[in-house]
Write a structure and sequence with these properties.
The protein is mainly alpha-helical. The protein contains six helices and two strands. It is about 60% helix and about 10% strand. The two termini are about 55 Å apart.
């Protein structure tokens, strides 16, 4: 009961405090309403709201196609290298898993296998477990790179629609101290109105 009263008091206090922080709206004068608004270099006609979804769709159909749609051609080899490497490890682990599994089955049937005399039965079981786990991890990594390819195309298409100019910049700064001659390095954030 005390908790409910405390929660009700806390909620009502929060709303009262919030109401005090509000200011009265000032009605704009006639002079303020007739001001001309100057739009930056990006006009409304330049923005394609379907570009991000189109880029993601293209990347889902064929990896790298969304990057080509965004005209980021340098990303295509990275996409194929990531997907190709992870698929290579999946296929290699799968082949090795089948090799050890077949050897274990042959050993259980009493037939001599390729690992006879070098690997014990327990070693064959452990190798199968390890290779199956590695195969599953490789599959998850491949799926992760595929999804990352789609997300990259979508985000890159979104970011192409932003206005980037010199009014907002984040750049490295280098200064030499006139007092002791030491070098000062840093980052500068500039915002111009």
């Amino acid at each position: 009961m005390k908790n409910r009263i405390f929660i009700a008091f806390l909620i009502s206090f929060t709303f009262c405090f919030h109401a005090w922080s509000q200011e009265d709206e000032k009605k704009p004068s006639e002079e303020e309403t007739t001001k001309v608004v100057i739009v930056d270099s990006v006009s409304v006609n330049d923005i394609d709201p379907l570009a991000p979804s189109r880029a993601a769709f293209y990347s889902a159909i064929l990896p790298g196609l969304g990057q080509a749609y965004n005209k980021k051609y340098w990303k295509i080899p990275i996409v194929y290298a990531a997907l190709g490497t992870s698929m290579y490890f999946y296929i290699d682990n799968n082949n090795q898993y089948k090799r050890y599994r077949n050897a274990y089955k042959q050993r259980l049937a009493g037939i001599e296998d390729e690992f006879y005399g070098r690997v014990t039965d327990d070693g064959l079981r452990r190798a199968q477990t390890t290779l199956r786990r590695n195969k599953e991890i490789s599959l998850l990594v491949t799926i992760g790179f595929y999804v990352l390819n789609i997300i990259d195309a979508n985000v890159d298409a979104h970011l192409q629609q932003f206005n980037v100019d010199d009014n907002l910049s984040f750049e490295p700064v280098y200064e030499r101290s006139p007092i002791d001659g030491s070098n000062n390095f840093g980052l500068g954030l500039n915002f111009k109105f």
